[in-house]
């Protein structure tokens, strides 16, 4: 479902009587490396062909007028007004972006903005990161701010913290900024060095299945996982003062000290340490064209998130188990924070119709919900769109 950029331009002109510039940023699906980003670890996300589009034009004075096409709702506020209550209104993402720009000495004036998108909202594909990144690039371009991509991603993560109160890592904003068509992005979340890994999308398909489970728990449980990881770091630091994050802890250490750790801290640390290794192994497997091995790593990641990190749920497990039972599926796992959201499956192209059929037949019976299935491709990170609507 591609968005029609010309329609968005017309809607902007009709509402604000000005000529906008358009910017788009993609949603993401993470192939592997879950709950590792805030532990200074490794991740392997893909920017997908679903996006948030922002149309913007400056206006005299200091008022922001923002219209969310999909909610048919307009909001107005002075450009320097802060987020009032995290987690509330959609305009908080914009306020958060404006605040973090000001913190960097960049003070935009008033503007009109229209936003629309086809990333499912709150569906675990990082619609919010796409929104933050698209708005930040729109503002930076409109007011001629110089913001290098890595800095931009960090500013957007900060904006997410302000807007939602969820202390997320850097993965989503980074891939929405720097993702590349046809490739997965292999990111070291400690020093933000990155590389691209070609996706085998001639022979295989990336299939996203959305649980459509109403979002609950995820915010508080997410922050709770972070705190437990910090407790783990404090423990290992006592053994070895150079430990700064779970990234620095080895699997051997975690196992040898298991009895001295509270059980729940042990479980969380075990997941993170092994998951980091799985990302490194996945990059090697994909580069070697070994999709069977990569699929095994995806499956192991899901089991670890389910059993050790305890962020899966019945709906995610159902989708993953359905996929695991189909011939031609390499691997399947939950993706993103968990407690709902989506799964990602790598499958042979011929297996996709059967996967969709089985999800339609079995998922509602197991959960009482309907799932959505999208076959996706890997898109570029944020871009401006020229007047013809092309990139
Ligand atoms: C959410 C966060 C990311 C990351 C994932 C889990 O998507 O925004 O920073 O922590 O959860 O891997």
Overview of this protein structure:
- The chain has helices at 5-16, 91-103, 127-142, 149-164, 171-178, 218-239, 251-256, 263-287, 291-307, 314-324, 352-367; strands spanning 21-30, 42-43, 45-58, 63-68, 73-78, 111-117, 183-188, 194-198, 204-210, 329-335, 342-348, 372-376, 383-385.
- With 391 residues, the protein is an alpha+beta fold.
- The protein folds into two domains: 5-198 and 379-385, Ribosomal Protein S5, domain 2, CATH 3.30.230.10; 204-376, Alpha-Beta Plaits (2-Layer Sandwich), CATH 3.30.70.
- Helix 3 crosses helix 4 (149-164) and helix 6 crosses helix 8 (263-287).
- Bound molecules: alpha-D-galactopyranose (GLA).
- Residues 34-35, 37-38, 168-169, 171-172, 336-337 line the site of alpha-D-galactopyranose (GLA).
Give the tags.
4-stranded antiparallel sheet, binds alpha-D-galactopyranose, about 400 residues, Alpha-Beta Plaits, 6-stranded mixed sheet, globular, alpha+beta, Ribosomal Protein S5, domain 2
